[in-house]
Amino acid sequence: MNKKIISLFSGCGGLDRGFTNAGFDVLWANEYDKDIWETYTKNHVSTYLDRRDIRKIPSSEIPDCVGIIGGPPCQSWSEGGSQRGIQDPRGQLFLEYIRILQDKQPLFFLAENVSGMLHKKHSLALENIITLFEESGYVVAYKLLNTVNYNVPQDRKRVIFIGYHTSLNKSFNFESLISTSFIPILKDTIWDLRTLAIPGKDKNKSNEKSCYVPNHEYMIGGFSSIYMSRNRVRSWDEPSFTIQAGGRHAPIHPQANKMIKVAKDKFLFDNNSSQPYRRLSVRECARIQTFPDDFLFYYHNLASAYKMIGNAVPVNFACALAQTICKDLFVFNQEIANLEKVKSEESLSQKQLVLEI
Predict the structure, then answer these.
(1) Which amino acids are annotated catalytic?
(2) Which residues participate directly in catalysis (predicted)?
(3) Nearest Cα to Cα of residue 280 among 338, 339, 345, 197
(4) Residue 326, beta-bridge partner list
(5) What is the chain's alpha carbon radius of gyration, rounded to the nearest angstrom?
(6) For a tag site, which of 88, 170, 243, 256 has the least CB within 10 Å?
(7) Taking a C-beta distance cutoff of 8 angstroms, is the pair 83, 92 a contact?
(8) Domain count, the chain
């Protein structure tokens, strides 16, 4: 059965790995950030990575597929940024996604973005984007989801758009997504790594050669007033805060006490904490994003590592979405095809019996 898909704005491939785990074949991907290329190619050996600027890639040079997945750059929609949205050149890259979707006409698409996209100041842009999806030939469904409900040990809210081609006469039902009956916590995720992390080198250069566990190094340096404006520590029996794309904003390891509020928007580290305060390591962030330990990250600066992991879609979350799409479009349709085949064979047998009589 054809489950060949393409990936746009692929990053290091969290979304791609999730779809692969669900039985899809990512045959072509596009990523323009050269700091990510080695990580992607070494972890997705069966996928061709096109390294060109997506704006310069003709649709005719992209393989035909049954699905398109990807997360266009989200900085322009972020609640922590300027929220310029579609007015920002990065926000306009969403239109490149739509261009390729219009030209390739796959059975489905999935696009992921930050919760800031639903801010009321972007309501007109959001309406226009949905209209463009619909005019491209798709029935569109979208919803804000928290990945913690899909076997990801992290509170992480993201907007998911899923479109089914109008020829299918169906739409994606977010209620059919299977959520986990438990909330995964940090102790179940990174407890075994707690004594093995090492600090990065001076200026946060990679210290990877000294790591006992691959990528298990953490960023060093001070903490900004913005960082100290709220508690950054989750305990062992809680899921993590959102893993962000900036290493300096990585959550604090749960070995330390929660931070103490001393004034509005001002917290301090607890001097009575039995363990020191340090940022989560690259590998710990990867675990929380549900990357397997054999998924290795290649970088020279720790900032690059945190960025590619923080920008990724958690693998388990991607897999949950992919499994539902697969069931909708392939498993059910295959059952119908099998039933029709059985009926056809029975009809043929009956005709042969009549001829024999």
Answers:
(1) 74
(2) 74
(3) 197
(4) none
(5) 23
(6) 170
(7) no
(8) 2
Encode pLDDT of 68-104 as tens digits: 999 887 544 444 444 444 555 555 788 899 999 999 9
Q: Are strands 217-218 and 48-50 parallel, antiparallel or unpaired?
A: unpaired
Q: Count Cβ atoms within 10 A of the Cβ of residue 325 and give its class: 0-12 exposed, 13-18 middle, 19 or more buried.
A: buried
161 and 257 in a single domain? The answer is no
Is 349 a domain residue?
Answer: no
Q: Which residue has the tokens 């930050």?
A: 114
Query: Does residue 348 have a pLDDT over 60?
Result: no
> How many other CB atoms sit within 10 Å of the CB of residue 158?
20
Q: How far is CA 15 from CA 229, 263, 315, 346, in A?
A: 32, 40, 6, 43
Domain of residue 55: give its range: 4-180+314-341
* CA 92 – CA 119 distance, rounded (Å): 17
Average the pLDDT over 236-261 and give the result.
97
Same domain, 130 and 173: yes
pLDDT beyond 80 at 181: yes
The CATH number given to whatever domain includes residue 298 is 3.90.120.10
Contacts (Cβ under 8 Å, ≥6 apart) of 357: none
| 122 — pLDDT class (breaks 50, 70, 90) | confident
Mean pLDDT along residues 188-216: 96
Nearest to 210 by CA among 197, 223, 194, 227: 197
Closest CA to 295 of 280, 321, 322, 314: 314
Q: Identify the pLDDT of residue 339.
A: 45
261, two tokens = 């509020």
**Cα separation values, 338 from 323, 330, 343, Å:** 20, 12, 9
Q: How high is the pLDDT of residue 271?
A: 97
Q: Domain with 130 in it: what CATH number?
A: 3.40.50.150
Structure confidence by residue, pLDDT tens digits, 271-322: 999 999 999 999 999 999 999 999 999 999 999 999 999 999 999 999 999 9
